[in-house]
Design goal:
The protein is of the alpha+beta class and 258 residues long. It has helices spanning 17-37, 150-155, 168-182, 218-231; strands at 43-45, 52-53, 56-57, 62-76, 91-95, 135-144, 159-163, 189-198, 202-212. The chain is globular.
Amino acid sequence: MAKQVPAVRKSTAVGAPLNYMERMAALAKDATKQEESVSSGAFISFKGGRLSYQGNPIKGDELDVVVLDSVLENCYYGGEYDPDNPQPPVCYAFGRTEEEMAPHANSSAPQSEKCAGCPMNEFGSAEKGKGKACKNVRRLGLIPGDNLSPEGVKTAEIAYAKLPVTSVKGWAAYVRALSTLDKVPPLGAVTTIGVVPDDKSQFRVTFNKSAIIPEKVLGAVFARHDSLKDEIMFPYPSPTAEEPPAKTKKPAGKRAKF
């Protein structure tokens, strides 16, 4: 009788090549997912005074949403905006109070140790006009407001919106109105976000209360809010090779599924 040769078995040891390749594939998937989360596709766009999401125009330039969370954002680009080669800010910061804000660790060209006192965060530092070179804006994390059931809120896709500087005062006024008149924060209401023409700034973003969130849904809303509190401060990608990071410059005098 011929001697049987035992079948060759693939190693399942932790350090085996097959395991390395499987782990590499998993990490590649995670890295892709991470980069997608910081791409412009995750943001609602107000470009040109029109609402769009992932390149798709939003009918009527209005959208009902639930704003789960918002943070202060300071962003300095270090040069004029190039529509043919848009770049992320070279210095940026997130925070819930102005006092705590400092350049993010991923900033490619930090302008100061803290935002308070930074020359780029002073009025008169802009290249043109009397404004700031560093833009003080808001980042909102939100979900669609058209499926207000616990399950709908739980599974809703999260998108982000970066409010233009000229619309920050309107957002602040809306937040105060909700607090004063309805005793709720933004996550307690369905908000209709829209854009309208503006003589001074070409357009501005508008905020109007559409409805108050039903009590039976609040548990799901708070759960999504809690999970978003850290996630909303995700960093920008690094500038591309076509546009090297801006060098720190000294201002002239004090002026330097939706």
